[in-house]
Design brief:
By secondary structure, the protein is of the alpha+beta class. The protein is built from four helices and ten strands; from the N terminus they run H-E-E-E-E-E-E-E-E-H-H-E-E-H. The strands form two sheets. Strands 1, 2, 3, 4, 7, 8, 9 and 10 form an eight-stranded antiparallel sheet that branches. Strands 5-6 form a two-stranded antiparallel sheet. The longest helix has 14 residues. It is globular. The chain starts with a helix and ends with a helix.
């Protein structure tokens, strides 16, 4: 259930998009090869044409109890957008493979096979027409894929 703060937040995002939010989800991990990584997640949303995501400054927690970080880095707000029409592929890969690709700075990730899908932590890999590769650990990969197909008219 959305709180008043959440409703206000969504309203502000709709005003920025210039349209209603047609899909939204929270991703608990994100990485973009050659750019940034977020360990604590990003909010992903779209009006059906433009995909937007942004993160929030928050301290890590275990069971709702904040954990102090000794060397807290200066927070820089992340906001990224791209047209849904620029998505050329969506795949599943292991978190380990995505992490390795991010560290290497090139896409060395492989599609998760049946065994990996059953035993490993998986992330969604999104490749754009300009070669950008992003990884999202999202709550419902299948729903994300179906919504992108819907928005692309496939």
């Amino acid at each position: 259930m959305d709180t008043n703060d959440t409703i206000q937040f969504l309203k502000e995002r709709e005003e920025a998009l210039g349209d209603k939010i047609r899909y939204r989800t929270y991703c608990t991990w994100y990485a973009r090869i050659g750019h940034e990584k977020r360990e604590y997640g990003v909010f992903l949303y779209t009006d059906g044409r433009i995909m937007m995501f942004e993160d929030f400054d928050r301290d890590p927690q275990i069971l709702g109890i904040p954990i102090r970080r000794k060397n807290k880095e200066k927070y820089e707000k992340l906001t990224v957008s791209f047209p849904i029409s620029s998505i050329v592929s969506i795949d599943r890969t292991t978190h380990k493979s995505a992490e390795r690709a991010f560290i290497d700075g090139k896409d060395s990730s492989k599609s998760a096979g049946m065994i990996a899908r059953a035993l490993c932590k998986l992330v969604t890999k999104v490749t754009l027409s300009d070669g950008t590769v992003m990884f999202f650990e999202m709550m419902d990969h299948k729903d994300f894929m179906n919504r992108i197909k819907e928005f692309k008219g496939l």
